[in-house]
Specification:
Elements lengths: L1 H20 L6 H13 L10 E4 L21 E5 L2 E2 L2 E2 L2 E5 L5 H20 L6 H14 L12 E2 L6 E4 L13 E4 L2 E4 L3 E4 L2 E6 L2 E4 L2
Antiparallel strand pairs: 1-2, 2-5, 3-4, 6-7, 8-11, 9-10, 11-12
Length: 210
């Protein structure tokens, strides 16, 4: 847990640096390359290939960076993680140079859903309940078609570990697990909203790590 905390601290600091690089005219590939260079200079390097997407491409949960240039008022989505002595971090943040109300609403909804899921999390809770609740909240907000993946997964020595927060899972939360909470909402041609937190399951509930 302590190593994951340290990896998260480094990743959060790097996000502050990333924000300073984001300005109209930069390309996805340029930002992606700069992020990879910084990750490789820290800890044991990147935990996975970072995700860097601009504009309507933020509606692609697993898109790849290309030579497109950032235009004012386009959203920027960055998903990255660091490996430290074998343990991983994984965080997603979005940036809005200018304003993009439709995607900003999706990002705010992702945060609101994440907060509700974190409140629910405690030892013994079926993880399927979290997937069901995320689907309910996103659907009631008017975006049932925007759900393209479960709202989280386990993380540790691998970026993706059990349990996966999906509706057909038989797993339950256990003390000591570290779980990502990342409900995403994606609208093709518009963009996507996703924030990602990491929580540690304790006897008292969910401890927010980042």
């Amino acid at each position: 847990i302590q190593l994951i905390r340290q990896a998260l601290s480094e990743t959060s600091q790097l996000f502050e640096l990333v924000e300073s690089w984001i300005e109209p005219g930069i390309t996805e590939k340029q930002l992606h390359k700069a992020i990879r260079r910084e990750l490789e200079s820290r800890g044991d390097g990147q935990a996975f290939n970072p995700l860097v997407l601009f504009g309507s491409k933020t509606a692609w949960p697993h898109g790849s960076a290309d030579a497109r240039k950032l235009v004012l008022n386009e959203p920027v989505l960055v998903d990255m993680g660091l490996r430290l002595e074998g343990y991983c971090s994984d965080l997603t943040r979005q940036f809005f140079p200018g304003h993009n109300p439709p995607v900003e609403r999706l990002y705010e909804l992702s945060q609101a859903v994440a907060e509700q899921l974190i409140k629910m999390m405690k030892p013994g809770l079926p993880v399927a309940n979290l997937a069901v609740e995320a689907k309910r909240l996103i659907s009631e907000a008017g975006y049932p078609e925007g759900i393209l993946h479960g709202p989280g997964h386990g993380i540790g020595m691998e970026v993706h570990e059990p349990p996966s927060l999906v509706e057909n899972s038989k797993d339950k939360l256990q003390v000591g697990m570290v779980i990502t909470v990342e409900p995403g909402i994606y609208l093709e041609g518009v963009g996507g909203g996703r924030i990602e937190h990491l929580v540690h399951i304790t006897e008292a509930g969910a401890e927010l790590l980042a």
